Amino acid sequence: MTYSIAQAAERSGLSIDTLRYYERIGLVDPPARDSGGRRSYSDEDLSWLEFLTKLRTTGMPIRLMREYAQLRHKGLATAGRRKQLLYDHRTDVRQRIAELQACLAILDYKITNYADIEAKMAGESLVQEVSA
């Protein structure tokens, strides 16, 4: 199946401008062209875009994404380096997750603290109303 750039953008969740940018910097191979000269994306192209989106979402720098894309074109001989890139990035992602979990714990503590304060204040208001 093939997709226009608008369809590829919709399916990938990326903007048309981002698709063109990714093509320009070498993250995405120039897609095939239809008879009218318009870009025509394949299911394989969309799978690659999905992978790139995951890398970007996890915070991989464009520089490393480009290195990975270039290595991909060189074939299986680069599998070790590609694995190492992903391994190193996974370590970074795990560290960021741990940081976020620590931040989440602080937020949970603060929310619980404010809920306790509100409950105490509501209880004091109730006592004052009953006393009146």
From TrEMBL:
Keyword set includes DNA-binding: yes
GO molecular function: DNA binding; DNA-binding transcription factor activity
Gene3D superfamilies: 1.10.1660.10
InterPro entries on file: DNA-bd_dom_put_sf, MerR-type_HTH_dom, MerR_fam
Record bears the keyword DNA damage: no
Name of one Pfam family that matches: MerR_1
Residues in HTH merR-type domain copies: 2-71
Keywords per UniProt: DNA-binding
Protein name: DNA-binding transcriptional MerR regulator
